[in-house]
Amino acid sequence: MKQIQSACPVRSDHPLSKAADIAYIRLGRKNLGSATEYYQDFGLDLMEKKEDRILFRGNSSDLPCWSLEKADRDFLIGLGIYVNSLDDFERLKALPNAEFLREGRINSIPCVTLIDPSGLPVDIMYVSEEKNKNQVDPSKELWNYPGESSRANLPRSYESRPAKIIRLGHAVFFKQEFLKNASWYCDTFGMIPSDIQILPGSKEPVIVFLRFDRGETLSDHHSIVIASGVTDSLEHCAFELDDLDEVAKGREWLLEKGHRSSWGIGRHLLGSQIFDYHRDPSGMLVEHYADGDKFDNSVPTGIHLINRKSLYQWGEDMPKDFLDTKLSLRKLLELWKGILSGRQISIRVLMELKKVADISPRTWIKY
Q1: Where is the VOC domain (predicted)?
Q2: pTM recorded for the entire structure
Q3: Does residue 4 surpass a pLDDT of 50?
Q4: Domain that holds residue 214
Q5: Which end of the chain is more exposed for a tag (fewer CB within 10 A), N or C?
Q6: 99 within domain boundaries
Q7: Which residues of 16-104 form beta strands (DSSP E)?
């Protein structure tokens, strides 16, 4: 294991709850019309359309996973998380400063709202595992392999359409106070650090991939990722698809519709997902993925150096602007505001992270 200079987020021995899955993301959008059109092309199913709010879902659940809400700016409003234990829900409900909403936030399910250390509202809902899942048939596509021809005398069919999204898989957040926020999600929801990335020079931890602790039941390698950042913001969200073909079909449809691609197709290193990134009308990254790692609670935390190369095993050349390392006036103002408010922000760590992120991941890619 690589030597770590500072404290890292760790699995809590006595978490307040053991949450089950990510439920939804709430986004403020200036232009609901263009955002609605985009996310239908992206592959989400439209559930509800009101003047001030649009709800979408994947095909594995009848519950919403994506809420677009009318606002005067484009920003992250909140996060939703499911618990499968009523005792856990009641324990969180009894916490000081917890807000109980009997009618729910974006559906009729009662929820408890907590505020994470960055100020982000986190809604927690008790939902039985059965209620949150529809039966999703695995792909019935036949594949030919050397020595095994399952698709004999049958050409591969093709259907031009949006991707069929199964579910919201994970969300990646920048946080000015990395350790404080990451530890809060571990302590409050029993999340397990699957992998931690550290800076090559100082060995400071700067990114953690968190999975839900479901015991012997397999869970996604990461459902929430916390990364050191100049601002507190949402970096990207990812949606699970069936397989590589579905990822490619989704990409083809978005490009045909004139939408903006960002990076892909490729395969990640940590998490192993086949990925394809795009940008919605606000410029926010959204990801289609398939074939991600699944861990139970027995897998120990991995420690890895961070750099652009560590983001993928193979794939299209990573564009320089995929990682937004520019220090805009807005970012600098947010950073200054955080420092003035007394947050524990290391400028040294942020500068080293920016330096690492500016290095090309492959010898043939020139930035």
Answers
A1: 167-291
A2: 0.95
A3: yes
A4: 21-131+164-357
A5: N
A6: yes
A7: 21-29, 45-49, 53-57, 66-70, 75-83, 99-101
